[in-house]
Design goal:
about 25% strand, five-stranded mixed beta barrel, 10 strands, three-stranded mixed β-sheet
Length: about 200
């Protein structure tokens, strides 16, 4: 028996049974879920032939992704360290499944290095020190740098919260964006309440 997305086996709204008058069709087929896992140092992506000769990239194991820092218009490749929250199920956190809208902990060093290069501000583990620079551009950049406190703390720790916006089981990659502002506050609250239980 193949996996099907047909609704002929389901009952009507009134509760009556539908008579099955045709066999399964190719356009109704479903496939086994990818269940993409976070596995360090071991990426595995397969291709699936789909209708019309097109291809889907099915990620089975991933450990990196491209993450965007929206307010700074900066995108960097970063290592995924852990899955910390998923609104769907705690089972997906336990199994470290990478799905769309999963909240991840990623390596913050690529973004910390970029911030230092751009603004001349070193986000050290202990303090925020401005490195003197001779160029006029660097002096102007250091004046315009305005980093919010929670994100600054995360960059200091070297672990940043990010959200997956791609579909690893369809695209073969776990890309997303860094959480900021109200969204970051919301998920921080969720993670803290989950850890208290």
């Amino acid at each position: 028996m193949g996996i099907t997305r047909s609704s002929l086996h389901k009952r009507r709204v009134t509760g009556g049974k539908k008579s099955i008058h045709q066999k399964k069709r190719k356009y109704e087929l479903g496939r086994v879920p990818a269940n993409t896992k976070l596995v360090m140092g071991n990426q595995r992506v397969t291709t699936v032939r789909t209708r019309g000769g097109n291809k889907k990239h099915r990620a089975l194991r991933l450990d990196t992704g491209n993450f965007s820092w929206g307010s700074e218009s900066c995108t960097r490749k970063a290592r995924i360290l852990d899955v910390v929250f998923n609104a769907t199920s705690n089972e997906l956190i336990r199994t470290k499944s990478l799905v769309k809208s999963a909240i991840l902990e990623i390596d913050g060093s690529p973004f910390r290095n970029w911030y230092y290069k751009r603004y001349g501000v070193k986000i050290a583990p202990r303090d925020k020190t401005i490195v003197p620079s001779e160029s006029r551009k660097a002096r102007w950049a250091s004046r315009t740098s305005n980093l919010e406190k929670p994100l600054q703390e995360q960059l200091r720790r070297g672990k940043v919260l990010a959200k997956v916006s791609s579909r690893p089981g369809q695209d073969g990659r776990a890309d997303g964006y860094i959480l900021e502002g109200a969204e970051l506050a919301f998920y921080n609250k969720k993670i803290k309440s989950k850890n208290r239980k």
